[in-house]
Amino acid sequence: MTYLKRTQQPLLALAAIGTALLMLHPSLSAQTVVPVTPAASVRGLPDFTDLVDLVGPSVVNIRTLERAAAVRPGAGGAPDEQMLEFFKRFGIPVPPGMTPRTPRQERGPSEDAQPRGVGSGFILSADGLIMTNAHVVEGADELLVTLPDNREFKAKVVGADKRTDVAVVKIEVTGLAPVKIGDVNRLRVGEWVMAIGSPFGLENTVTAGIVSAKQRDTGDFLPFIQTDVAINPGNSGGPLINMRGEVIGINSQIYSRSGGFQGISFAIPIDEAVRVSDQLKTSGRVTRGRIGVQIDQVSKEVAESLGLGGPKGALVRGVEPDSPAAKAGVEPGDIILKFDGKTIEKSVDLPRFVGNTKPGNKSAMTVLRRGAQKELTITVAELEPEKPEVKAAAPEPTKPQASNAVQSLGLGLAELTAAEKKELNLKGGVRIASAEGPAARAGLREGDVIVAIANTETASLKDMETALTKIDKSRPVNVLFRRGEWAQYAVIRPQR
What we know:
CATH architecture of the largest domain: Beta Barrel
Helix content: 10-25%
Largest sheet: 6 strands, antiparallel, barrel
Number of helices: 14
Shape: elongated
Strand order of the largest sheet: 1-2-3-6-5-4
CATH topology of the largest domain: Thrombin, subunit H
């Protein structure tokens, strides 16, 4: 069959020759020369240009800022927040040179604001509602949204739901072009889809692929859409678009063993995201139901022994005391087969069905207990909202003694230990114990290691002091430093 598809035109030519022979020699029967039916036509590759024109104006870039005073070791600076996002969602660090442009380079919203991370989003309404991922906006002190026409606005978080990784933010503007929401139920495996976002801060980047699978179980409350669309840090929160120009998902995660994109990415189905966003817009939070059971999958062996015909339902391993399940008479060992009229095909279906049920609702539940089915009625309670993480205040670092020249740059410095030199594979350098003022504004922070200043190697504090005596204190000075395994440059500008 493959050969027929590759040689379709030569076969048509043979068919034409056969027809000509019949005309020249009528004695030849129709059975003697049989025209070959051409193979089914192969569809051409899709053209995404119209889709980009249609949806591109609705996709935004989201940059997050963190106040310099709030910057903690391992929690500030654009490259490392990118790296942090990748650790959480993608698994690899951001290489040097890929730092997105910062607001300071454009408009400088405030002198002590530090670039923190970058993500994507898309416009939900003409009056400035934007959907993105919760992990994109988490922990940010400021949000900056850049539209495709390069207009930039400060945004506020309307609400964020970490359990589904959905957030809604708002900018004060009107006349925007909202996206068209698609129907996930019409989505088919093998269908072409497209993503638009800002990977590594490269705004309005378009990638494409196909739907690899639906209902992929990678989260408690979400069956993800799996695709092979290239997704990288900064794509988070951007739309997944079908060939009708409709948004059918929010790009959220990739699966990787090597740390790089390996052809497996996941998107939050848009119907689930819209359901969450509707609650966020109304109350700023998402209300979910709970019944108070610990569940597990039903194995094939257990299903066969119980006469289920196949592994289905949710096996109850434990029941919380005084919970809705306990009050309804659910017992450990029960297999929940239906909840509120919906069949439980897999155990992960149950928390989704219960979570989507309004607290206080009385729901019918079918359980299998010792070979017999029982009908129970259960009153759904409210799942406690996630408690915000309480971060302990970082102790004030003890600042080592330093010269006035070092202090004027906002730096507190310390010698590298032998163990630190070995770990970083460095012959020498000066560790930053604290960074304030000019140093903090340049993006330096505690834990960085300065290896050169003003193009002079600094293997020790003495070298640093010597180099500083030779520079003009009123002019910017370049600093070569190491942050983890990456070497980067910063420019410290004297305070005016």
